[in-house]
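Data availability (excerpt). All sequences and predicted token strings are deposited with the supplementary files. A representative entry, Potassium-transporting ATPase subunit KdpA, is shown inline so that the format can be inspected without opening the archive.
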Amino acid sequence: MTASDLVQLLLYLVLLVVLAVPMGRYMFKVFTGERTLLDRALLPMEKLAYRLAGIDAQKEMGWREYAFTLLIFNLLGIVFVFLLQLLQGYLPFNPQHFGAVKPDRALNTAVSFVTNTNWQSYGGESTMSYLTQMAALTVQNFLSAATGIAVGGKCWLLFENTCSHC
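Structure token line:
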């Protein structure tokens, strides 16, 4: 490990420790519906996204609707990642001219990235085009973690509401 690597690691760890408490407080406020410093900037974008998607933000979802919506969202992610792998030979950002990924491997990879296991049974740079890596795999890396946070937040709120009535 070079001195530059060590400095970079230490800076990362310091930044992680410094931001842990403020980010935790921010996420707590978001999940409990309290106002945050970012509301002024983010609420207009959130309202626009809700309007474009036809979502009524005031309507509460029951657990069945929430679970169904979550399953459909993840199923669409699997289909998108699967199709992008099968069609990558015909799509742009493929300077190496990679062909389609075999269907069984494409399905395995799609399910793996959507479920946040990210298990790879292939050589990334020798199998996936740039478009597949950035539009499918990288996006799913974010979405699978965001889905986990959303489910965790919802479970925490359900637990809190259930326990407050005990």
